[in-house]
Amino acid sequence: KNEVEQSPQNLTAQEGEFITINCSYSVGISALHWLQQHPGGGIVSLFMLSSGKKKHGRLIATINIQEKHSSLHITASHPRDSAVYICAAPRSGGSNYKLTFGKGTLLTVNP
Amino acid sequence: DTEVTQTPKHLVMGMTNKKSLKCEQHMGHRAMYWYKQKAKKPPELMFVYSYEKLSINESVPSRFSPECPNSSLLNLHLHALQPEDSALYLCASSPRDRMFGRASYEQYFGPGTRLTVT
User: Fold this and answer.
1) What band does A79 get if pLDDT is binned at 50, 70 and 90?
2) What's the confidence (pLDDT) of residue B106?
């Protein structure tokens, strides 16, 4: 079992649909990163959260520390949201934290 | 300035070449990271620098040589690479955790350098 598991692996949606991507983790401290990577592009950090809920535009991230589970929601999805979404759990590596990454969810939003 | 920059964006090099990748941040972060990402895979940690000193080396081959000349700059020197080293190389940095005095778990990523070794 992977230490950070994402579901689904692939997701296809129609423009305007509400999207949910899930992440469960069994390692690390009680915090999680959500990252976005467009095809052929670099990584953009969307959220870093350790409790509750964060919102940025049409993106909402929630985390349940007790259940070690986080969700990323996209409201009113748009083709430009098509990307790989990766969750990553920080865990202590001496004086620094190392990130354990999930395998990513490939989201395709069709017009 | 709230970003991590990387140069060049793309690099093509032969197996006998020597080249360098550059990463820069002006956010006052004192921890900086190099990652390697192959296609359709998550990033893999290579090196971590903390206060300009090498803190973590994830058993990376010596043909990759990191350098942190100052708190804003991180280099990755490349020599005698193999075609399988072709990948996206990502840099990241972390602020200092004010409570614990160590690097925070937050990481800010640069756009990456896409390296092709021929």
Assistant:
1) very high
2) 82
CA angle A31, A57, A35 (to 5 degrees): 40
Question: Exposed e or buried b for every residue in A52-80, given b needs 16+ CB within 10 A?
Answer: eebeeeebbbbbeeeebebbbbbeebeee
| Cβ-defined contact of B42 to A45 (cutoff 8 Å) | no
Closest CA to B46 of B70, B30, B29, B63: B63
Q: Which residues of A touch B110 (CB under 8 A)?
A: 42
Helix (H, G, I), strand (E, B) or coil at A71: strand
Q: Is the pLDDT of residue B71 over 70?
A: yes
pLDDT, tens digit (0-9, with 9 covering 90-100), for A2-50: 789 999 999 999 999 999 999 999 877 778 899 999 988 889 989 988 8
What chain A residue is nearest to B49 in terms of C-alpha separation? A96
User: Cβ B55–A101 below 8 Å, yes or no?
Assistant: no
Q: Three-state DSSP class for B84?
A: helix
The pair of structure tokens assigned to A101 is 């990454």
A88/chain B closest Cα distance in angstroms: 10
